[in-house]
Amino acid sequence: MIFSTLKSNLMVQLSLISPILPAHSAKPITECIILGLKDNELTITATDISVTLVNKVEVNGVEDGTVVVHGKKFINIIKSLPDTLLTVKREGGLVKIISNNIKFELSITEDYEDFPATPKSLSGNNMIIDSLKLKNYIEKTVFTVSPDQLRAVLTGVLFSLKLNSLTMVATDSVRLVKLEDKSVRYEGEDTDMILPAKSLQIVSNAIEKNEECKIFFEDNYVEFRIGSVVIFSRLINGKYPAYQAIIPANNHLKAKFDKQTAISALGRVSLACNPVTRLIKFNMEPGQLLINTEDSNSSSKAEESIPLDYTGEKLLIGFNSAKIIELLKNISTEMILMEISSGKKPVIIKPFESADNYDMMMLLMPSSVDNSGSN
Question: How many CA atoms lie within 13 Å of 111's alpha carbon, on the beta-carbon side?
Fold first, then answer.
């Protein structure tokens, strides 16, 4: 195998591979990547068993061939080179990487037959969506998945498909995000599937421009086709919780405020909050939202008031500062609408103006507070 290409051309593709590679694996072959050259097309394959990425890039091919090399070592070598033409060639049991007066040698993994087989390309059930739209949806949901591996279904994002409709849901049991788009292309049967957060982040990283993304799926795994990139992922087994049951239907108190003003105030006030509870309080009254916190352990406190469009009774409600800030940052509109029933029940947070292509709502469970003004 011999080929040459610009370092920048190769690094763009290798950057998509890097997040898949495990630092240490019980199956060391998964720390490797396959480089396969045919004519002027280089195919790069990486897997961690649960997710597999196959990428193709145009190079100047000289001699066809296939090699398996340690993934991170190869990537780090290419990354270290100047942005000029480089040559990669196999000589015996070595891969040589040459760029001007710089030369590297990397051993080849001879037992590449042990490399996990790439899943077969799927056909049949599929959804079509603009890739940048999908990237946006992933970014607005994946941050709320749970890290708790004992509740595996909550470590992924629910994709619920109906006729020309996609609903994505993610929750960590304290907050929930639901996003619905009724303009996708899907004509199959109603389907629910849970995709791992890591797989979705890899898909998001692979999207750089707007193009058609096709998503094929079967019982056990899903396939994303985005330009020259193909990503296979196993699905998470299990039934997603009945999230609809916790979304309140009668939050009668409405409050509207400016997103950036609130985020800035929350960021300042949270500097004084208890580092364990992260408790911050919303004191709401017509015309004003007073945000305050107090940490008795460090004898610190802070407060700041911001304008609030609200006509209900005075209300005190507590939140985890980090969780509410992250929710607000993932709303695209300048104004935010908060729907509340009381200081102890779930709060709905959503854009004040609806987006053109999708509807989104967020739910946040309040933190326990008292009326004494202390944490």
Answer: 6
